[in-house]
Amino acid sequence: MRLHVADHPLVAHKLTVLRDERTASPTFRLLVDELVTLLAYEATRDVRVEPHEITTPVTTTTGVRLAEPRPLVVPILRAGLGMLEGMTRLLPTAEVGFLGMQRDEQTLEAITYANRLPDDLTGRQVFLLDPMLATGGTLVAAIDYVMERGARDVTAVCLLAAPEGLRVVQDAVGERLDVHVVVASVDERLNENAYIVPGLGDAGDRLYGVV
Ligand code: URA
């Protein structure tokens, strides 16, 4: 697994406002959107491109365009949905799939309750969106899910990660270099309820209110 922590003052500033318990949902949603766009820039560093010839007003030159098959962006419901716009802003031609995963609050195991993804992901680059990499259970299940269907490389875009969760992902994927995690911050630890500390609370609740 390759880990990239977005070390940038704008990321740190926006993250600080996001963490603040006084930040209400509308501002929280806006900040998540902005942060994801900044993370998307890093996350797409290895997006596959192919040569593309064009004519400028002056001459003919060869640039690049996104290669086929198009990348697949997969928000993990519910909180990952808040990251979708920020990601597709930089990858407007990406296909979008959905994975509904929830952790069982007793066992803390990940349960898949919905999926809307192509059956065959052979050769696809997949970007998984999940704001909180806490225990790592959900992310490992999602990585397994897309890799079993043939995904060639998988990048998880997360706002915060706990060291414990990163270790779980690392143990599950080993030295595979085609699993990449991009985060805005690696926080201190998980608490007894598997919340990230200092964290930002429940990302889904803060994005959408408590349901
Ligand atoms: N999920 C959240 O929304 N917040 C945490 O701190 C951990 C998991």
TrEMBL record:
Note describing how the cofactor binds: Binds 1 Mg(2+) ion per subunit. The magnesium is bound as Mg-PRPP.
Any GO BP annotation: uracil salvage
Catalytic class of the enzyme: transferase
Regulation of activity: Allosterically activated by GTP.
InterPro entries: PRTase-like (IPR029057), PRTase_dom (IPR000836), Upp_B (IPR034332), UPRT (IPR005765), UPRTase/APRTase (IPR050054)
Cofactor: Mg(2+)
Pathway(s) of this molecule: Pyrimidine metabolism; UMP biosynthesis via salvage pathway; UMP from uracil: step 1/1
Pfam family, one: UPRTase
Enzyme Commission numbers on file: 2.4.2.9
GO MF term (any one): magnesium ion binding
Annotated catalysed reactions: UMP + diphosphate = 5-phospho-alpha-D-ribose 1-diphosphate + uracil
Keywords on record: Allosteric enzyme, Glycosyltransferase, GTP-binding, Magnesium, Nucleotide-binding, Transferase
Binding-site residues, 5-phospho-alpha-D-ribose 1-diphosphate: 78, 103, 130-138, 202
Domain of life: Bacteria
Domain Phosphoribosyltransferase: 5-209
Binding site for uracil: 196, 201-203
One GO term describing the cellular component: cytoplasm
Family recorded in the similarity comment: Belongs to the UPRTase family.
Functional description taken from the UniProt entry: Catalyzes the conversion of uracil and 5-phospho-alpha-D-ribose 1-diphosphate (PRPP) to UMP and diphosphate.
HAMAP family, alphabetized: Upp_B
Name recorded for this polypeptide: Uracil phosphoribosyltransferase
Organism: Cellulosimicrobium arenosum
Lineage, uppermost ranks: Bacteria, Bacillati, Actinomycetota, Actinomycetes, Micrococcales
